[in-house]
Amino acid sequence: MQPGFLANGRKGKRKPRTRIVDVQQPEESGPPPSAIVASTPSSSSMPTTSLVVLPAAPVFMRPPRLAGDHKGIFAKMAADPNFRLRFFTPPDNSFVFAYWPDIKHRLLARPDAFTPLSSPARLPFEIRAVPGKGMGMVAKEAIAPGALIVRERPLLVMPATVPVVYEATLNGMSYMPEDVRSTYLTLANCLPKLSQMSGILNTNGTLLDDMPGQLDDYCGVFRNIARVNHSCRPNARPRWDADLFAGELRAQRAIAAGEEITFSYTSTFLPSAERQDILSHKYHFTCKCILCSLPPALLAANDQVRTYLGDTVLPSVMFGPLAQRGMKEFLDLERMLEMGADDSPTLWRPLARELTRRYCAEGKRAMAVKWARKAMEMTLVATGTDGGWAAVVEAPEKTDAWRSPGGGT
Ligand SMILES: [Zn+2]
User: Fold this and answer.
1) pLDDT of residue 164
2) Which of 3, 300, 337, 402 has the most CB atoms in a 10 Å sphere around its CB?
3) Cα of 276 to ligand 1 centre, how many Å?
């Protein structure tokens, strides 16, 4: 899930960077590796040996192009009179889903898409006023890295082109159930020149980046996630779960009780001037977060590291075999990440996986556990499941990489 979706956003400032998402490998959606047991004859006289398979490295791929192409929608509508925006409200009237007919058979047919969500007995946050920022989300208790903060259905899901093309449709949205509408209308609107409905959508909408649409991207507005303010060094990260038709927010580093919960509305690999430019153009505020408040020399150093990570390290980690890198390269990367350049799973996840493999190969249990825990936390943030890492944290010595230099690659 990516914040921001305006189809006619900032133009001509700089060549667009590749938008990257983590994509789970098919193996990770199967049974956890702890359940994968090396086949041994089932004999009461023979001990059974469990072998934990080190979870595979994350696979990165470029997502489909951002649609925002009104021509494609118009051409489809001209060619097919039945191709019109449709609206769906589930039986419990909990949200409105506006969609193009091209996704109905693939999405609405999912049996679990609209069944009730399980929610934690006690929410670890409160929504309250935050000085200088309006409303925000604040932790009521300490939240561990990887932990679920909230999982919720959207109030509204719309094709991303709708706010631009169908302002009138949006204004007259009689489809919205009354209590959903009253919650929706309390959300922030930083674009008062648009209608209230459209301004709120453009201010709070997050891009739902794995909806199976052919012609358009989709955006959603969420009751609680919409209250989360921006930081350039965020402590949380949202993601969209298309199977559950829900957004979730997880801690990507430890959050203390009383700390504001934030996520980044921009790429965290951009230098500060570009981040401020995007925030000012799209959301009409100037960021004063812990990074943007650094003295100029420190901010310049942080910018340099972030740009290096985004422009050089990220493509190399995504497309190069990590196993061939020298250990010094990894430790340099760890130092750069820990100095505040990035807390997201994008780089930490492959780095932690490879370091776990190496420490397992050397038989260094404490270090293997440390990095397996980091890999587990980052996998939870990126995918919503531990991906089999809990079993590695528990018993790294049972992995196929243990004291095996070539294992787990
Ligand atoms: Zn900032």
Assistant:
1) 52
2) 402
3) 7
